[in-house]
TrEMBL record:
Function: Involved in the gluconeogenesis. Catalyzes stereospecifically the conversion of dihydroxyacetone phosphate (DHAP) to D-glyceraldehyde-3-phosphate (G3P).
Binding site for substrate: 12-14, 174, 213, 234-235
Gene Ontology MF terms in the entry: triose-phosphate isomerase activity
Annotated signal sequence range: none
Catalytic residues of the enzyme: 97, 168
UniProt xrefs under PANTHER family: TRIOSEPHOSPHATE ISOMERASE (PTHR21139)
InterPro entries xrefs: Aldolase_TIM, TIM_sf, TrioseP_Isoase_bac/euk, Triosephosphate_isomerase, Triosephosphate_isomerase_AS
Listed Pfam families: TIM (PF00121)
Pathway: Carbohydrate biosynthesis; gluconeogenesis; Carbohydrate degradation; glycolysis; D-glyceraldehyde 3-phosphate from glycerone phosphate: step 1/1; Carbohydrate metabolism; erythritol degradation
Entry protein name: Triosephosphate isomerase
Statement: the UniProt record of this protein carries the keyword Cytoplasm: yes
EC number: 5.3.1.1
EC category name: isomerase
Length: 250
């Protein structure tokens, strides 16, 4: 079974969690091994918890970061580099989340540079994209999101499955609203075409995750929607019980 045949279930803790929360990661790590034939599992805690998370995560659970700088080191106060993430045992990094695109003015070009920096350190970037409600209502969602991904992905990939994409409609993040299965399938199909146009057959090996209010109650439908290769989970990844409820839907 290739990695692509498994679903990638990733948790993004955003700016949540102090050391006491590491027990949730320990509990997740203790259980996800039971689903190893169906999935790859990842938690991205805040940078302050990366080392602690890696220490309790064991072999069945990957640990990743929520952002990285495009440079390896330098005078960038408050930033962390992909090299630093790799040094702590992180194997993934989320780049271009809408909260960073919006709150930190990150352009597609900046996101692409971050993804390339991650690849240089052997870390897999999860490159995020997604439209606003206004763009969806105007019928601009597919054009906008596919252009985001055409422009935010590295120029070249050197191996299969080297990056992942996360489609997260901004209006579905933290709102309890999810895109319909038909809308998700339509967007993922358009993203697949964009990836194949850019990377040839290798574009078929890139996981496309869905994110936006994924929880145990809707995970079964979303994870079994056409061309959905996994989920990027925010709020429901903070507690082991709800993250494992999503994993159980695989
Ligand atoms: O990165 C995760 C997403 O922003 C989704 O967050 P949410 O599951 O809390 O809606």
């Amino acid at each position: 079974m290739t990695e692509k045949n498994k679903k990638l279930i990733a948790g993004n803790w955003k700016m949540n969690g102090v050391q006491a929360a590491l027990k949730e990661i320990e509990q997740i790590a203790a259980k996800v091994g039971d689903y190893a034939d169906k999935g790859t599992f990842l938690i991205c805690p805040p940078a302050t918890l990366l080392a602690g998370a890696r220490a309790v995560a064991g072999d069945a659970l990957h640990i990743g970061a929520q952002d990285c700088h495009s440079a390896t080191s330098g005078a960038f106060t408050g930033d962390i580099s992909a090299q630093m993430i790799a040094d702590l045992g992180g194997s993934f990094v989320i780049v271009g989340h809408s909260e960073r695109r919006e709150g930190h003015n990150e352009s597609n070009e900046a996101v692409k540079a971050k993804a390339e920096a991650a690849l240089e350190q052997g870390i897999k970037p999860i490159i995020c994209c997604g439209e606003t409600l206004e763009q969806r209502e105007k019928g601009e969602a597919i054009g906008f999101v596919t252009q985001q991904i055409a422009d935010s992905t590295p120029d070249r990939l050197s191996k299969d499955g080297e990056i992942a994409i996360a489609y997260e409609p901004i209006w579905a993040i933290g709102t309890g609203k999810t895109a319909s299965a038909d809308d998700v399938a339509e967007m993922h199909m358009a993203l697949r075409k964009t990836l194949v146009d850019k990377f040839g057959d290798r574009g078929h090996t890139i996981e496309i995750l869905y994110g936006g209010s994924v929880k145990p109650e809707n995970a079964n439908t979303l994870l079994h929607t056409q061309d959905v290769d996994g989920a990027l989970v925010g709020g429901a990844s903070l507690k082991a019980e709800s993250f494992l409820g999503i994993v159980a839907a695989l």
